[in-house]
Amino acid sequence: MKKKVISVLLSTAMVASLLVGCGSSSDNAAPAADDGAAAETTEEAPAEEAAPAEDAAADTTASGDKFYIYSWNTELQERLKFVTDAHPELADRIEYVNVGDSAIYQEKIDQLLQTPDAEDYPDMIAFEAGYIMKYTNSDFTLPVADCGVTEADLAEMYPYTITIATDKRDGSLKGVSWQACPGSFMYRTDLAESILGVTSPEEMQAKIGSWDDFLDTAREIKEKSGDATRILSSNGDVTEVFKSNKTEPWVDDSGVFHMDPAMEEYMDVVKVLEQEDLTQKTTTWSDEWNAGPSTDAVFGYFGCTWFLHWTIKANCGGAAVGEGTYGLWNMCQGPVPYYWGGTWLGATAGCSDTEMAGTIMKALCCDTEIMTKMSEETLDYVNNKTAMKTLSDAGKGAYDFLGGQDFIAVFSPLAENVDVSWMSAYDQKVQELMQTQLDAYAAGEKDKETAIADFKAAVADAYPGVTVE
User: What is the pLDDT of residues 25-82, one digit of tens each?
Assistant: First the structure.
């Protein structure tokens, strides 16, 4: 019955939000309310004029009731153990709900947010970067300051992780992350030496320091390997790199669509990769793609912190030096710095216990001691500069999988250079629309001008309230 106390006030706020969304432009629409709206969930930006629920939040107090935390897999659940180890009094109250499928996660959350009297209404929810702004730029989430998280608590975080979770309407921070996910280029050291004569990450970086250099090196690898090796497995392997290097959002604060020059370069690079047969032409995350790290057919991958441990290492064909390709990898930045993924945690407008929410946020995402331990035990690259420096200085970053290279020392400066000023609540759906046209262009089915025109038309159709020129 804990939600009954706030149900009337919060329901009023959500009804106001829905009324604002009805008949208005898509950037004012509330999260979908029914099963039939699942497809709309990823297309709509959050309600920006919903009646605030501050009074409801202010009325919530700590109790012995269950505290519901929602996510789509077990990762957050496993990390919460570090919180309950430090705060055992919270263990019995946390009710972790694993929706089990990231594809339906938003639909589930959107339905729950509009049923504030439900016993299983979420107190906290996890967000991915692709859609976080849908929730943080709305009245369905609380500023972390309302949960007791202070500026001092945020001092060790990488700046981009704060920018991503900041409500653009008023500048309030709506979520915090325990991890940072800068990206790099991960490559086979034995192939680099035998094919290119490269013997260090510095030499490798010089070979791929720009996209022109990268494509030239791709051609060299194909030729000198006797057509046996390609620089990448899939054309899609460059997607996250280009997404992170836009200079402006797809849709600006005035509701105007922009085709960023970086996206045109993305189209051109992918077409060269496709037309010149410079990748293995697999599909990202397919069985064939996953098999690549254990063979000599693929030279390298663009990957981030989690990718290193749970994708490349997991698929290298061994578990120790001398097995498969274990130990035969290194990292360098690649053509440009970028980031890939991450999970944020935020409190909902109807959070039943904001003090408990703050305790969880501060322990998981701000406490240097806890985060140092978490990183050492899980290999997470945590969102805490001091924690990562401490581990690197102690030699904990030296990784046998990378031939002894310090993965922390590589990722740390890259994390500082991540720029997310281009992000918007439209990113996930617009990127999907672009991919359709990019594939047609790369395959030679459309010229560039037609592909861009068709892309813009698709955006205009998906978002009638957006101005597409």
Answer: 333 333 333 333 333 333 344 443 333 344 434 344 444 699 999 999 999 999 999 9
Same domain for 217 and 172, yes or no, is no
Contact partners, residue 204, CB within 8 Å, separation at least 6: 185, 187, 192, 196, 198, 330, 332
Whole-number pLDDT of residue 414: 94
Q: Is residue 423 part of a domain?
A: no
CA 182/CA 240 separation, integer angstroms: 11
456/454 Cα distance (integer angstroms): 5
pLDDT at 3: 53
Q: For 185, how many CA atoms within 13 A lie in the half-sphere containing its CB?
A: 30
Same domain for 72 and 189, yes or no, is no
Residue 175 shares a structural domain with residue 200: no
- Residues 92, 94, 95, 99: what is their CA dihedral angle, to the nearest 10 degrees? -150
145-164 in b/e burial notation, b at 16+ Cβ within 10 A?
A: ebbebeeebbebbbebbbeb
Burial (0-12, 13-18, 19+ Cβ within 10 Å), 212: exposed
CATH number at residue 29: 3.40.190.10
Q: Per the structure, how many domains does the chain have? A: 2
| 189 and 161, same domain (yes or no) | no
Q: Which long-range contacts (CB under 8 A, 24 or more apart) does 413-417 make?
A: 414/182, 414/183, 414/184, 414/333, 414/337, 415/158, 415/160, 415/180, 415/182, 415/339, 415/381, 416/158, 416/159, 417/182, 417/337
State the CB neighbour count (10 A cutoff) for residue 391: 20
Give a yes or no: residue 272 inside a domain: yes
Q: Assess whether 218 and 333 both reside in one domain.
A: yes
| Domain of 200, in residue numbers | 183-338+399-416
Q: Which residues pair with 97 in a beta bridge?
A: 70
- Contact at 8 Å (CB) between 33 and 110? yes
